[in-house]
From TrEMBL:
Protein name: NADP-dependent 3-hydroxy acid dehydrogenase YdfG
Gene Ontology biological process terms in this record: monocarboxylic acid metabolic process
Coiled coil: none
Segments forming domain Ketoreductase: 7-194
NCBIfam families, sorted: PRK07326.1
A Pfam family reported for this protein in Swiss-Prot or TrEMBL: adh_short
Domain of life: Bacteria
Membership in a protein family: Belongs to the short-chain dehydrogenases/reductases (SDR) family.
The species this protein was found in: Marinirhabdus gelatinilytica
């Protein structure tokens, strides 16, 4: 099992949901984290909250960054590296969804989903690849089961997540010769505020954000010789499976 103490991670979209769950799990393992948001205030507030949970051997910082801008991602990588001296892990988590019939979906909505979910994953890796090669680090994208299972009303979201899954797998082949690990995690229903949902006891059957955090920790602790490159994760017993 790999010791994560003293490592450093950059997480895009880390102020809530899956990104927050990953940040918290990494801090508990002694990994310092930089979390990004389009709002500096939100990033600072979340970093303060994370730092108030007894993470004595590691710390969190908040950065304002927009994954839709390559320059913004370059600045985030530079800031994280300046703070921690290195980047061992990059989590491309930032994402959003617009859903509806192709007849209803607007051009602006399509562009926002593709630019955030897919182009954002590319920008995040492109900006950090040199730093990850230096540390023989780990790049992880948060895709979705929607990246392999299409559904009605999902043209933009499906396209973005199918793209993220394929992009990540190809990047894995590009970077393995540098001993940089690359994986994509493809969750099903997760209890977050995504798409207007409200986490509650009714969603206890869903994957919880701490479950994804634990999964990321497990990946990072795995022996360097072994790479789970694509991980599908789903609720054990969704309502549709109950008799």
């Amino acid at each position: 099992m790999q010791n994560l103490q003293g490592k450093a991670a950059l997480i895009t979209g880390g102020t809530k949901g899956i990104g927050y769950g990953i940040a918290k799990a990494l801090l508990e393992q002694g990994v310092s984290v930089a979390i990004t948001s389009r709002s500096q205030e939100a990033a600072n507030e979340t970093a303060k909250k994370l730092n108030g949970q007894g993470n004595d051997s590691a710390h969190a910082i908040g950065l304002e960054a927009d994954v839709r801008s390559y320059e913004s991602q370059q600045k985030a990588v530079t800031a994280a590296k300046s703070e921690f001296g290195k980047i061992d892990v990059l989590i491309a988590n930032a994402g959003l969804g617009h859903f509806g019939s192709i007849e209803e979906l607007t051009v602006a909505q399509w562009n926002e989903v593709i630019e955030t979910n897919l182009t954002g994953a590319f920008y995040s890796l492109k900006a950090s690849v040199a730093a990850l090669k230096e540390t023989k680090g780990y790049y992880i994208t948060i895709s979705s089961l929607a990246g392999t299972n299409f559904f009605e009303g999902g043209t933009a979201y499906n396209a973005s997540k199918f793209g993220v899954t394929g992009f990540t797998q190809a990047a894995m082949l590009d970077l393995r010769k540098h001993e940089v690990k690359v994986s994509t995690i493809m969750p099903g229903s997760v209890s977050t505020h995504f798409n207007g949902n409200e986490p509650s006891e009714k969603g206890a059957w869903k994957i919880q954000i701490e479950d994804i955090g634990k999964l990321v920790v497990d990946l990072l602790q795995m022996h360097p010789r072994t790479l789970p490159s694509k991980i599908e994760v789903r609720p054990t017993v969704p309502p549709s499976a109950k008799k």
